[in-house]
Amino acid sequence: MAIYVDGQPVVDLWGGLAADDQRWRAHTATLVYSATKGVSSVLVHLLADRGLIGLDKAVADYWPEFGVAGKDQITVRQLLSHQAGLPYLEPFLTRDELFAGKPAATALASQTPIWEPGTGHGYHALTFGWLVGEMVARVTGETFGSVLAREVAAPLGLDLWVGVPDVSKIDYAPLRNAIPDSSAQSPAHNDPEFAAAMSKILAAIADPNSTFSRTFTANGELPTPDATTWNDPRALAMEQPAASAVTNGRSLARLYAACVAPVDGIRLLSDDAVEAAAEEQVNGPDLVAILPSRIGVGFQLDDPGTPLLTAGSFGHPGAGGALGFADREHKVGFGYAQNQLGTGITSDPRTTAVIDALRRSLS
Predict the structure, then answer these.
(1) Residue range 55-76: average pLDDT?
(2) What pLDDT does 183 receive?
(3) Which is catalytic among the residues 34, 41, 81, 313?
(4) Are 214 and 223 in contact (CB under 8 A)?
(5) Please, what sign has the CA dihedral across residues 260, 264, 265, 269?
(6) Residues in CB range of 290: below 8 A, 6 or more apart
(7) Fewer Cβ atoms within 10 A, N terminus or C terminus of the chain?
(8) Comparing C-alpha atoms, which of 122, 332, 304, 282 is closest to residue 211?
(9) pLDDT on residue 181
């Protein structure tokens, strides 16, 4: 984990085991699931800052094949804030087809939304990646991973990949499946409404045909989180801008720090782009994830389910515990990555405790 304040590193710590016989080292990296979405959204806003993407332009302006079956008016803003109505794939693609990426994007381009775009929001757990990845490819003429490497990872010197060409050539910490722990859930949610929502979630998890299950598992082919599925070298090589980033806490912190302040002379986003990124788009019950969510343009915002540093924070957690965010008020970049998957549905007690300590320190 690492923390930057005003462009300077103030915390940079690592420890524990990367594998049974190997300790976590300075540049060890692991898969961070949906913390990837924050990384990907930074890249989209960087391209928007340069005038290559318009947040209120139709996605079909960049990806013409997408503009069918009631999707011609879906904007980039709606896509990034989970309002497109495409949370799961209608066709049941094989795991190999999903790893390839292009078949999933092609299927989504012809698909009809399951709700009218812009009328509600539902977490696009995996489809977010195929949708955003194809849009960026159409805009730039390059794959998402190559643009991210050139425009973000290389200038800042990050251990960060969306699509690892050869996992044997990096210091990768394999994921470990969660150890059931009844204490892992946040006590802030011990109330009747949360209990009722959790009952709905558990029922949805048990039903493979539910919107929840189809969304979070790609119709059963990519169960998420699941260590065996996502430690597969094919999964790590997949350029999946929703879930396949391999990185560490230092790189997440440095990335977000460069969104709100210069880091070694590099500023990724302008003040205007940061304001656009952190502007609330939706707030309320999620049509897929069931629990309420508060979302900006590609980023999760501070709320009881995902508490960040202040109301001015924006970032993204990942299933199992990873988290990266920036805070506009304190010019903070925060990053945490772990290979031991946690069990919490909402915030992870490991990051919550550190954020509380950071808040006390800053005050």
Answers:
(1) 98
(2) 47
(3) 34
(4) no
(5) negative
(6) 197, 200, 201, 204, 212
(7) C
(8) 122
(9) 66
